Amino acid sequence: PFPNSVYRRSEGSPTKKAKWFLEWGKIANENEEQMADTMRTEWACDVLRKEHDKPFFLGVGLYTPHFPNYAPAKYFDLYDPKKIKLPAYKADDLDDLPEKVRRAKTARGRIHQHLEEIGAVQEAIHGYLACVSYADAMLGRVLDALQSGPHANNTIIVFWSDHGYHHGQKMDWGKHTLWERTSNVPFIWAGPGIAQDKTVDASVSLIDMFPTLVALCHLQDKQKLDGVSLASVLKDPATAKDRDVLLPGLKPKEYAIMNQDWRYIHYADGSEELYDVRKDPNEWDNLVSKEELNGIKEKLRSSAPTTFAPPVKKKDYKLVVDGDSFHWKKK
After folding, report:
1. 106-118 burial, b for 16+ CB within 10 Å, e for fewer?
2. I need a surface site. Which of 133, 245, 317, 329 has the fewest CB within 10 A?
């Protein structure tokens, strides 16, 4: 019964109105088949077990591990909460941030501070890990169905997440940042024409998926795309070259430019951050004020967009669905 987590039930919770945020708990194992992610997984498995006379695309989107972190008890039981290793935290992590960002994240930090006060940081991460294991089990069902079906040897598999998540790093619980924890996602490819058991040490973007699938599936597409095909790199990872990748922020002129060595962050008000991510993977030391690094900063900034679309308010637009396509129409 809601609320289950100690955070939701505790007095003084900073986000009492956000009903499902930092809510977690065990579901009876016998109810696993009634959970939405299990149901959509089984639907996908049925598709994969059937014969198809034409090429097809199947997307399996799992809600877990979004809050609420509800999962069958057996996935919680995989972990001893007392042995869960917490992320690295730094008490003065926010001190070298631009003033506006520092104020916002200091306010946001009340969430992490409250978790520490009630001794629930490990418990909260326990719920997240349980849901990751639940998602992993669902992926296992999908792969088993593919393997037992008629298309095991001619199917390309892409496994990814749309964003990462802060679990107290930089005093944040959530996404919507331009830091490493938000932008670092799993991105795994398997199938015909793809090297096995290789890790590619180069920056890529999720928008590379479409042009890569176009190339791997021998399709024709002449659209002008921001993404690039990774097909040759997937075939021969040794040919990979690092590149600058754009992560847009929530506002125009707000973005991060990142590669394997550096992350440059630019906010809408012109304030900046710069991190040497090889030496400082936690992004604890903002180096933007160091003059000797101005060349690196300017090089990264030069690959950012120079113009941005004006902001719009979603409430001013209506979503119009027309068959298999859709568009937004101003009210």
Report:
1. eebbebbebbeeb
2. 329
Nearest CA-CA partner of 284 in 205, 178, 169: 169
The DSSP bridge partners found for residue 320 are 327
Residues across the chain:
331
Strands annotated E in 200-241: none
The answer to whether the CB of 4 falls within 8 A of the CB of 23 is yes
Radius of gyration for the chain, computed over Cα atoms and rounded to the nearest angstrom: 22
Strand residues in the chain grouped as ranges (E): 24-27, 69-72, 157-160, 166-167, 173-174, 187-190, 245-248, 255-258, 262-266, 272-276, 317-322, 325-330
State the burial class of residue 286 (Cβ atoms within 10 Å of its Cβ: 0-12, 13-18, 19+): buried
pLDDT tens figures, 247-275: 999 899 999 999 999 999 999 999 999 99
| Whole-number Å distance between alpha carbons of 283 and 181 | 10
The shares of helix, strand and coil residues in the chain, as percent rounded to the nearest 5, are 35, 15, 50
| 176-224 per-position pLDDT tens digit | 999 999 999 999 999 998 999 999 989 999 999 999 999 999 998 888 9
Rounded to 10°, the helix 121-148/110-117 angle is 100
